[in-house]
């Protein structure tokens, strides 16, 4: 990563993702979180004020030192323990079945291997744990013109925002990682042009891990 991606982009994201218009969405996606949670793409901590009181601790996964420093004031203002516990959502440094819930907001667009990150999230969730997600990605199939513009703009968007994709099919990716979606809302945000803000906000349930389902030889 160069100077722009390491030093400039986290500050741009801090401002862009800190808009008042995003706060109702953050409040919605955090509803129902409880227990020990892992948040991938923690960024500068904009979700921290919306953690429910039922959250007992947060393992923050954030690669950017700048982003983590920018989060300092928000972390200091909450009574919920928040620790920086990882740098890479594609390889989480936690044991299987470690967390009650996971949170991801506007993160899967940028992780190089988002499919691997989702599999890792499912691995570290307890059976029956939930993934709460708010992500932008590929527009609905019926919006052909929006999808066309997303494909045109994606190369530029990736250069400007350190690899941020516009065309990832978020709901399909969550399902493919082994989650069962229990709640979903697909919509366009009003704060930006449609190609940039085709959002999916939902909750997905983690089932038993593949190893848990393997019959024992002596069964």
TrEMBL record:
Keywords from the named record: Methyltransferase, Transferase
Regions crossing the membrane: none
One BP annotation, GO: methylation
MF (Gene Ontology): S-adenosylmethionine-dependent methyltransferase activity
Pfam family of the protein (one): Methyltransf_11
Keyword Cell wall biogenesis/degradation assigned: no
All residue ranges annotated as the Methyltransferase type domain in the record: 38-132
Signal peptide bounds: none
Protein name: Methyltransferase domain-containing protein
Organism for this UniProt entry: Streptomyces piniterrae
